[in-house]
Amino acid sequence: RYGTANANAEEAWEKMRNSALNCQTALQGPHEAVLCARPNLSVDKVSSWGGTEIFYNAQDVLDAAYKMLQAKGELSGENYSYDLTDFARQALTDYGYYLLKGINEAATSNNATAYATRRDAYLQLILDLDALLNTNSNFMLGRWTNMARNIADEANGTTESDKQWLELNNARTLITTWGENSNSEGAGLRDYSYREWGGMLKDFYYKRWKAFFDNRDNGTTLPNWFDND
Q: Mapping DSSP to helix (H, G, I), strand (E, B) and coil, where does residue 43 land?
């Protein structure tokens, strides 16, 4: 995969093989990232058919990310960059899972100091993950939206309005609401095809969670999530 053998990379893959890539139970949907869910303090899924409970030792994923990073002096290229980004993404995503549990525990026990500290760390984590993903074009929202817009160039007579429709009503809709209210809420298809991408984290998921915490902390009404999305 990298053009040469590397002990650190091999150990990284072995740790992933025995953790995040080794689900031993039957699941209806995929394992999902709490950071991308519609906010609440006890998120258990992102889409209607997924789940967020971590079934492996998250320390193994963190160790795998570090091992892959240690291979940096000897490995390079697109495959290595992709895997390094992906392993680090999963490690940070797992941290978000446990951090949200800590926020819930602090809120339940009325520990205002711990709650505020963990809340702020959670929001910053989303921004940090966004910054990480924006270092690799394979994990960027813009790659997806540009592909959608470029489809218009394949047909004669298309306009800028056609490109905007393909981006907003097709590409962006697929990774958020999956269509109108009847699809999103009625059929439960919202976030069915969510993506942990640079741009999505900062401009979509972060704003969700920020609105949630702001309203919760101020005692104000939560937004209508479909309208918000």
A: coil
